[in-house]
Amino acid sequence: MPESSAVPASRPTPAEAAELGAEDAKLVVLARGARGRVGAVEGAAVRDQDGRTYAAASVSLPSLTVTALQLAVASAVAAGATRLEAAVVVTEASTLDGAGHAAVRDLATDAPIHVAAPDGSLLGTVTG
Asked: What is the pairing mode between strands 84-90 and 53-57?
């Protein structure tokens, strides 16, 4: 499958699923937890340059809509992160939302973005 561009015009499609290391598997657990706690459409988690993790769920209010990945990245930046090592989004969609992808790419052009199903199974990884 094709790799996505740095600033996507549409929803990037994850490349074939690979094995996750222990640290990235932890991000899946955190993202699933964030999603499950509030019954959100999506959950996400990111790991910054110091190994700190941030998890978030999507927000949909009449005056504010933020994807889980955007909120996780915003939380990391608000805590002082300047670079991301990896990101995970747990979703029922088969593609990654463009806004979340762009937020991760603002801090890291090479960080893998793993896309997982609600049950935690890895659907694929966006690398570009």
From this structure: unpaired
Q: What is the pTM of this model?
A: 0.85
Q: Three-class SS of residue 79?
A: coil
Q: Is 32 helix (H, G, I), strand (E, B) or coil?
A: helix
Distance CA 10, CA 2 (A): 13
Instruction: At 23, give phi and psi (nearest 5°).
Output: -70, -40
Nearest to 9 by CA among 103, 97, 88, 125: 97
pLDDT class for 20, splitting at 50, 70, 90? confident
Report the distance separating Cα 71 and Cα 89, nearest Å: 11
